[in-house]
């Protein structure tokens, strides 16, 4: 499989700067070349947030840092950041320049840590991985270097408290909405939720209670696995893994039942919440089923996904089982490590009781699009992809719902596709696009 | 002022070539004087925020050539700006009634192993793939910090691939770490064009090169009256057009910092005269610019007629706007020389300019001609500009200054800056079309937008009421130049 990338849909390791931006009142300090941070924001940074975008402190490595090393420069920028930027947590992230020349960023950071400053560092030189992987690295760095140091040593395990590791902020353009819905439904079954990122998080104080959680919840195909495994080894916190985004009635209820059983929650309470939510959810579906059955001028009958594994499986299960749109080929673009690919294939093998779908793993959007173009397009289809699919959709008469970055054609605030609310939102958004094509 | 050497694979960076700097505080007149006396010092900041880099600016110019493909030899993060440029490209297609086409941009995806063993094979494979998929008339290869530091022989690969594929495969060296002045990336892009694409002239044409981004077409009418046609370069041109830019009758700069290198190179290498005058902003600037254009083209009489007609047309309306804007204060943040042009325009409209944060400073452009110094023209025509800060997008300095100055209006030319005016409740204007303020009509265009912005206070007032500020109280009370210091002498010109 080709490793060159036409039409990139994720960032490099340094892309995890956006994970930091997503923590309330946290700020990245980027020790890298001058353009890195801006390029990351260009792809996965719609909106500057609290201290992202043009606010991000950066050493802007120049020739002299390459030749003589950039440690002193970094020290100056960290020192300035504490004075100038009003934040609760500072996260030093390295780029290609400092990682290749071998700056001892850890040493520089430790000097500030020794003064009990809220600062951590992680090596995220762009070439080392991508942001699906480095998100884990950065979260672990915060836990090891900040949480462990400042947590309440006397605090004991809090029954009913969970840490949720779900989407990768900004890489998932709908991260904030998705996290908000996950928190809402988990609270609905009686849990107390550390959501850690976004508007529903209480910020760094919440992070300090990570070790007290009764268990961790991972909603993700594979990113984040390193985090929950590490937390299990470290604090003995068990984890519940739901390997795709739960969208709509079926899967969200399944997710909640799984969590409830894993955490030994009161099944009566869980079922009561599920019943109430399903009632609302299906009343909308029922109310509009006639539209989906009767609209005679053309609705998409099959779908392509060009998404990361977490979204791809989640949407496939939802579209097939709850909307009756059938899977064409499914493309997974998150550079899934080989060891996780079989599990994902397996989900598509059993996407419904009656159906399976073919999966291709590729990071090369150009190659994917060429393949789709080469197929026969007898029926109107739906593409769940990115802004790159604009022309492809027009050419094959498909409707496009951008779910992946680059998301450029949509402005995202609190929209999300997770859970019951997200399922309804997905229906609105898909058919909104369909109906909008008529004159 | 060095001669441009098109034999060398790389353009010399601006700091060395023309003595550009990125840090200064004082007045505009002081800055100009320092430049003239060779006393300009680079000042570095001990605290800094993220800037732009050359590779983005190089990509910006090359990625919208209609029949070329781009290969970015870098880790995937460096390709984060692909879609932004693709978007601009497609907006421009709409404006030009071109069919929708996607930008064909490839990234070599340099990974950890490649930093040890080199990535030239990957580069070769990517170029081949790009060729197979796109069948372009040229391929440009932009480099990165990673490819530069590991020492990949990019020029060797592009030379080899040019022969194999039978099209120009051109290396554009634009590693981010090499220059603090990100407009160096424009120079890199133009260097690769002048070096490998442009052919020696066979005849003179009635075309006039206009080095611009992608602004609206305002030159067809003007040049048409003089018997010439505009050739907008480099975005939206084709390789065939670029091959022939050596045959043009003249070159016009829409922003001297953008086109400095290409304008000078075309004149030095192929004798295409560059119009050396202030930019056509404000009445005096437009007068001077048009007269120089007339002189170079031998159309003095026609130009005088245009000047007369146009001024008569706009002056009554301009006077009206001046009355409305009298006493209004404003602050500008932009790159040079467009920023200098905006300063002239605002002063022409009778506004009080309280200061400016301009991204870098080129004491003179590659043509070495003082007439092209728009800042000098502005100061001479309208008087000095106080609080003139050379500042490469350091928003912490900007916020600090705005916090004290509190102008009636902020004008920003680049993204990431407007927020800081608005969060303080200051009406803020960003105009994307770089041609909007050009010429006599440009004064009216801008005045109209400024009045509209000044009038529209509800949004910023409400935003300010509900905004957070990521800067500390301590910082907002300090001298804005607290972190600016540490001189590095620049004496290369």
From TrEMBL, chain A:
InterPro entries: ChlB/BchB/BchZ (IPR050152), Nase/OxRdtase_comp1 (IPR000510). Pfam families: Oxidored_nitro. GO terms for molecular function: oxidoreductase activity. Gene3D superfamilies: Nitrogenase molybdenum iron protein domain. CDD domains: Nitrogenase_VnfN_like. Residues 12-434 form the Nitrogenase/oxidoreductase component domain. This is Nitrogenase molybdenum-iron protein beta chain. The lineage of its organism: Bacteria, Bacillati, Bacillota, Clostridia, Eubacteriales.
TrEMBL record, chain B:
Gene3D superfamilies: Nitrogenase molybdenum iron protein domain. It comes from Heliophilum fasciatum. Transmembrane segments: none annotated. This is Nitrogenase molybdenum-iron protein alpha chain. One of its GO terms (molecular function) is oxidoreductase activity. Residues 59-454 form the Nitrogenase/oxidoreductase component domain. Pfam families: Oxidored_nitro.
